[in-house]
User: Fold these one by one.
Assistant:
Number 1:
Amino acid sequence: MSANTVYVLNGPNLNLLGFREPTIYGNDSLDDIAGMLEDRARQLGLEIDMRQSNHEGHLIDWLHEAHFAKAKAVLLNAAGYTHTSIAILDAITSISVPVIEVHISDPTVREPFRHQSFVALGAVDTVQGMGARGYVVALEKAAAL
């Protein structure tokens, strides 16, 4: 890893992108998003380390890893854990690497339980409601940090 590495961490059920509720999440798969990010990262002189897990502890471990690897930033789509995980918030506030929250949909216009984001309480910025392109926007924000 280098200081130009951006971790892109994806939470539960995002492995199903591409066919999971396309009216909400679009038709792009996580592999499609990875391709978009790799292309843009090359242009920005960055490297991407993209991961997905359905397990909260993996996301926390990876946030810690990003810190010790001295990553440039973390793009975090914590998915459902966004609205429930104090442990992920604690991990974010425990590390020095800036975290940018990413959401494909706009949680603020969805079910009321999605309106609270614990991730946002520790993140330096949030990108939401832009579909898969939001990851690229978040990467561009990370490049400017």
Number 2:
Amino acid sequence: MASGIRAALSRLYSSVATSVTRRRLSPRVGAVDFGDLRRTAPISRVFGFDRGVPVDRYYIEQFLQANASLVRGSVLEIGDCTYTTRFGGQAVEHSDVLHLTGDSPEATIVADLTNAPSIESERFDCIILTQTLHFTYDMASEVSELHRILKPGGSVLCTVPGISQISRFDMDRWGDFWRLTSRSARDLFATAFADENIEVVTYGNVLSAVALLHGLAVSELTADELDAHDDDYQVIVAIRATRAANS
């Protein structure tokens, strides 16, 4: 009997504590202090590059750091070789840079990754594809090509926006088409890669999402604020997909 009473009191205390915490954390309706964020124009329209390191870069680089051991051998990156050099270092034996139009001074391959017959099959050990896939309308064709040009056992490290502003530069040139979730990203890569060879992780929370949308920089949030994870606020969706060794 006594143990039952103690259990009931414990549940009641937990319920009351949770209710009090929610009231403490949630301002009453009409009492929210928006401060500098009460504006219909963002603080920065260039993702925060003019203020420092953008919030999404914090998550992208966290993902690449966690998978740095895969950046080795023959590596393909889009636009430039910044992350190949930073995360691969001496493990990289050959570096290629792909650009759609060849405008990048670092480009060694000019091709459309939805259909790139000029790139031989099974060429790369690693492909770094950050914040690029969503500029392709036919993403499934691009994922198929990524699988084709990877060596067996090779991996693609891909990041896409979940919550983000439109990239006006890309929208006006080739298009900015999609925002993904962890579910859609997994299903997309499963059209070419075996499900057991796909890992999807997400980064972000409501505060970092608001910060990114306003164009605030990483330095304007604390590490605890950035690292808090809420899977309902997927700022960055990151995919590691590996081609089967025997495929």
Number 3:
Amino acid sequence: MGDPKYSRKKSARPRNPWQRNLLKEELELVGSFGLRNKKELHVASTELSRIRKQARQLLAATTEIRTAREPVLLTSLSRKGIVTDDATLDNVLALNVSNFLERRLQTVVLRKGLARTPHQARQLVTHGHIAIGNNRINIPSYTVTRDEEPLVKMTDGSTFVLQEIVVPEPKSDTYGNPDEKEELESKEKPVEEKTEAKEEVKEKTEAKEEVK
């Protein structure tokens, strides 16, 4: 038998998880990116902390170590589409959690217009409707590299069809029933017109009585 495998934690909870601003920010990120729970957000936050720690260590390292390791870090982040090709360590320190969440397969599917909402994008990925090239990927948190992004598409055997939203044409008449229209228009007439009509009817009746 081989040695047992002890899996390491991929995420760490924040030190002060009950801060009001932090809770509000986490809730907005979970909703905007369609995350399943806060654990997925903590995974991205932990990865961000690890990358920033490497950048700080390189800034404090000697010239030889920095010359050897800085291109490796920047090339890796550029290949994943997190930073640009001409980025520096200062740009790495300015990254936030959204930069990592935007490279998830779920977010890329939504950005390419294959789904309407992030929750629908997650459903398409988990149900096997999304492929990268010839490989079907059913992991929403899969990190899409810059070279793989143009290859994201629907699978060949997918039966999912993105229906268009049909916007109803505005009706020329706001009232469906003409009787209702007349009734509402009569209610909207000013009180003076109604009193004048009553006086005209009264004068006609008096004239008829005089003739008799």
